[in-house]
Amino acid sequence: MQQKETNHAFIATSAQIMPGAYIGLDVKINDDVTVGANAAILGKEDNLSTVAAEIRAGAVIGANATVLAGVIVGIRAQVKPGSVVTRSVPPLAIVEGNPAIITGYVSTAIDIGAAHQVKDEKIATKCSKVKEVTLQQLTLVSDLRGNLSAGEFEKDIPFKSKRYFLVFDVPTAETRGEHAHKICKQFLVCIRGSCNVVADDGYNREEFILDSPAKGLYLPPMTWGIQYHYSLDACLLVFASEYYDSADYIRDYDQFIVAVQENK
After folding, report:
1. 8, 179, 181, 229: which is the annotated catalytic residue?
2. Which of 23, 77, 103, 165 has the fewest CB atoms below 10 angstroms from its CB?
3. 181 a catalytic residue
């Protein structure tokens, strides 16, 4: 990264800093970043911090926005004008408000998918533009006794599950996931309420709304997954093909992109 001459900050020469913007002590502004007019990127010693903010490559900070010291704004993330960012922003996230919360993701088409299934209809599978990701409409049987949704491992769900976990009571401002697996496959079903899932293979991204226990999303290995916009009553059931192994996780998006390129 080539840097502009400055006495107190690290600013890439390709970055665009609009008039009136404040860049604090030791702030790092990476390649192709845009900082809007009158925005404030706080640095070391601002708001009593010992660590400056960092804005990573391709991010956009809107006019009059404030990014607190110690916050990292991820690659290609967008901070909407006037927002106050108090916590680090994931790569490609769109944040807004005071304090800023995630309202979406950059370059992700939303696929709502079919919300309902007629009685005893065969399993329907919809392929995504994200490599090997599929949205599957599971069997739904409804009668006077209630509703039943079912799926069979290695048939409807394309692997044999060794583990499951439930995600629930998630504050709506929070996100889950934000990682990829090297070998583990996952199948997600929101059994109550709804949540949004972003799938990313390093080249394409798509967002899905899981809002029915008869709808499942298959995430193959080497897929960056994010879950957010949980409804207050949401309960997400996740089946995994492998036992828990911390070494199977890729938790840094930059490292994920490198791994994808190496695999290709």
Report:
1. 179
2. 165
3. no
- 169-225 tens-digit pLDDT: 988 767 787 899 999 999 999 999 999 999 999 999 999 999 999 999 999 999 999
> pLDDT tens, 171-183?
876 778 789 999 9
Domain 109-263 class, CATH top level: mainly beta
Provide the whole-model pTM: 0.78
pLDDT single digits (tens) 24-74: 999 999 999 999 999 999 999 887 888 999 999 999 999 999 999 999 999
What is the full DSSP assignment across the chain? --B---SS-EEBTT-EE-TT-EE-TT-EE-TT-EE-TT-EE--TTGGG-SS--EE-TT-EE-TT-EE-TT-EEPTT-EE-TT-EE-S-B-TTEEEEETTEEEEEETT-EEE-------TTPPPEEEE-SSTT-EEEE-EEEEETTEEEEE--BTTTBSS--SEEEEEES--TT--EEEEEESS--EEEEEEES-EEEEEE-SS-EEEEEE--TTEEEEE-SS-EEEEE---TT-EEEEEESS---GGGEE--HHHHHHHHHHH-
